[in-house]
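--- STAGE predict ---
source: upstream dedup step, 1 unique chain passed
mode: sequence only
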Amino acid sequence: MITHLLTRIDLMMNSFSKGQKRIAHYIEEHYDKAAFMTASKLGETVGVSESTVVRFATELGYDGYPKLQKAMQEMIRNKLTSVQRIEVTSARIGSANVLDSVLLQDIDKIHRTIEETSHEDFNRAVDEICRAKRIYIFGVRSTAAIAGFLAYYFQLIFDNVTVINTTSLTTMYEHIFRMSSDDIIIGISFPRYSAMAVEAMNFARSRGAHAIAITDSMASPLVASADSILIARSDMASIVDSLVAPLSLINALIVATVLKKKDEVSETFRSLEQLWNREGVYANHDEDKKDKNGQ
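--- STAGE serialize ---
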């Protein structure tokens, strides 16, 4: 099936009714605005009924208007500037409760991630991580935080982890130039996609390393070089990227890895607990209460 919305419209234009052509032309010229309109608002804007808009979506092969709307949103997510993101978010949320609106959108992204992430790719990624000689984790800009979170736990589990969060192309290559077919790279990027993440994934592929992409859709530029593709839905909340679903997927990746290496990891954490207790890394709640009571 042809997946790009504008290609579908172009191929089917001659078969559309007069009203459907008006919708089609508006989407071609203003899909950045149409992407966040309800079916009713889009119909009102172009002068057709809401039912005509819904039939138009079905005619294009989408399972209802919400799927057409998502296709339009996918087209613009990597093209919006920070200022445009603020404007779109303002129009989307309006006078609604911001806290409730953002949290409910994040819940929806986790549900979509559950539906869309390949269990086969997930399990293959876990297997490759556990057998890798070296593990490289790439995440820059907004994804540096979740790349760092993943690296923190993997560095406790493995002794062969390198996290790459530099914005210097030269420094990036200095980190990965030894990469081989015995290694893996986990590339993390969401709209607006990092050109360096794409570069790192391409380099990994050229060295025969297993490349794992954590990204938002099969249209992501990371997918072309990936051996395992883990889809985690992201979206914009103003200039902020919503990374709730990606972080949840990373949590699952850590848990699955720990369970696969349960005995080895348990022994590692027994040693770490002794070290943490000896060095007083974590506050002792009972001791704190005694001090406050003068005992």
